[in-house]
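Running this now, will post back.
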Amino acid sequence: MIKIIHLFMLSCKKATELIEKKSVLPLSLKEKIQLYMHKSMCDACTAYEKHSEKIDELIHNHIHSEHREVIHNNELKEKIISKLP
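Update: finished.
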C-alpha cells in the first residue's frame, strides 16, 4: 500500500515540472494523476499553475498581436540615445 502512495506522490519541484511540461506536451495518464493528486493537497502548486497559465496566455497574445509595435534596430538605437542624459 505504501509503495502505491509513493508512486503517486510528487514533490513540488516535480509538480512544477509537470505543470510546465503540460503547456508544451501532453502528460501521460500517470503524470496527470500524480499532478491532480499533488494539486489537491498543495495550494502553492495550484496557484503556480494558474500563474503559469496566465503568463503563457499573455506571451501568446503579445506574440500574435497585430498591433504590436515593431521597432527596427536603428529606431531602437535612436530611441535609447534620446533617453540618455
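The mean pLDDT is 86. More later if anyone needs it.
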